[in-house]
Write a structure and sequence with these properties.
One of its GO terms (molecular function) is hydrolase activity, acting on carbon-nitrogen (but not peptide) bonds, in cyclic amidines. This is Amidohydrolase family protein. Pfam families: Amidohydro_3. Helices cover about 30% and strands about 20% of the residues. The protein contains 14 helices and 20 strands. Helix 6 packs parallel to helix 7 and helix 11 packs antiparallel against helix 12.
Length: about 425
């Protein structure tokens, strides 16, 4: 097993999205210098008088701000094959999850959550906000206990923040008990309640009493409740240290232009961070419309134009709510380009700087004074990196190299006709090794 360096002092020969080749110096968890690489395109540790630790040569790699996942369900992750649920219906997904979760143990949940978090870390995600269910039955806090354990186990490798996901039937005392165990934020899905506004206000009152922020599943359907306006009105005067986040927001993508402009203005005025979740919402929404199927995305372009804080996440990964997913923020960014019509820069910002803003995390990336939360992917341009999503990656968290992945491919070489020099069939047994 490879031992990764405890702390990096410098990164050399890294390519940035603008094409420049740079060296980066790191002190502790902070970037302290960004300078052009040498004219030959190579610089080593001897050229860094302040470097007193390991130096990472990133020749051939694009260096980016590490992704942050603003909306995960680690307690549900990797359960699809265990449950074998019906496809394509939110209500049936909820029902199948409730039946399965009744028999889960704390260890079961922790094992899947840990595997999922480490898979995300390997792909570059160094901060995760996880919504953890408050379960039914006589042990409703099993998921919370599991995730608190995993958070402690992974301390130093990634930042894990927990949100109590309280459905409409979850008693308020169970939410309070989850907060007492160490959950950071209040969450729920008020649009599923018989009285959405009443359930939303109940959860906001709990957060107010505790002086903490909220992250709500909001209006996750193509029609029906629009609780966003109530959320924006109630939190308008909340202090900045109590962040407010709304995830999904699918209904925004269905509103007529005039109403949409009004609601987005209210979102911006209340400084609500919006999280779009393309893979799960594209999967779950629109099954009842077999012709001209509507796409289950929030109004990402209009939100950006209005100056709203926009993040993007993967949401569910291989559970009853989404049978697929690669635990990779580059997959989310790619979907924002193809389904959301964002630019490459906008899409990657949504999974990195935008996500960090919504999560109230310090600024990170390749800039002096920024936190050294970094992802290096083999490639030369952002288009190549998002498009190919090479598995060759280095992941830096808090200035430490916490993950390094390499992929090797061996491809058969064609046999050449000795007379014509043209390829013949079959191919030779010789293999061309590529990375």
């Amino acid at each position: 097993m490879e031992t990764l360096p405890a702390q990096l002092a410098a990164i050399t020969n890294a390519t940035l999205p603008d094409g420049s080749l740079v060296d980066v110096e790191i002190a502790g968890d902070t970037v302290v210098s960004v300078s052009p690489a040498s004219s030959e395109g190579r610089r080593d540790a001897a050229d860094h008088p302040r470097s007193t630790g390991p130096t990472l040569d990133l020749s051939g790699f694009l260096l980016l701000t590490a992704p942050a996942e603003p909306h995960a369900h680690l307690d549900k992750a990797l359960s699809w094959d265990l449950i074998d649920p019906p496809m394509g219906d939110l209500g049936l997904a909820i029902d199948s999850w409730k039946r399965y979760s009744a028999g889960m143990t704390v260890d079961d949940i922790a094992d899947r959550a840990r595997r999922q978090a480490l898979a995300m870390l390997a792909n570059g995600t160094t901060a995760i906000r996880c919504h953890v269910d408050i379960l039914q039955g006589d042990q409703p806090l099993r998921g919370v206990q599991a995730l608190v354990r995993v958070r402690e186990e992974l301390k130093g490798l990634l930042d894990l923040e927990l949100t109590a996901l309280a459905g409409p039937t979850v008693p308020s005392e169970h939410v309070l008990a989850a907060l007492d165990l160490g959950v950071d934020l209040v969450g729920g899905a008020p649009h599923l309640a018989d009285d959405p506004d009443a359930d939303l206000r109940r959860l906001l009152d709990i957060a107010t009493d505790r002086g903490i922020g909220v992250d709500m599943h909001t209006d996750e359907s193509l029609n029906g409740a629009l609780t966003m306006r109530t959320l924006a009105a109630v939190v308008r005067d909340w202090p900045a240290e109590r962040p407010v986040t709304a995830g999904h927001c699918v209904r925004l993508g269905t509103l007529e232009r005039a109403e949409l402009a009004e609601v987005i203005a209210e979102i911006v005025a209340s400084d609500i961070g919006i999280v779009t979740l393309p893979i799960t919402n594209l999967y779950l929404q629109g099954w009842e419309h077999p012709v001209a199927t509507p796409r289950g995305l929030t109004a990402v372009r209009e939100l950006l134009h209005a100056g709203a804080r926009l993040a993007a996440g993967a949401d569910n990964v291989r559970d009853p709510f989404n049978p697929v997913g690669r635990s990779d923020a580059l997959e989310t960014a790619s979907l924002l380009v193809t389904a959301g019509h964002l630019t490459l820069d906008e899409a990657y910002t949504a999974v990195s700087d935008g996500a960090r803003s919504v999560l109230s995390l310090p600024t990170a990336g390749v800039a002096v004074g920024a936190k050294a939360e970094l992802l290096a992917v083999r490639g030369d341009t952002l288009s190549q990196v998002i498009g190919e999503a090479s598995g060759d990656r280095y992941v830096v968290h808090g200035g430490r190299l916490v993950a390094h992945s390499e992929v090797t491919r061996r491809i058969a070489l064609p046999a050449l006709d000795p007379t014509t020099g043209q390829p013949t069939v079959p191919a030779t047994e010789s293999l061309l090794e590529t990375r």
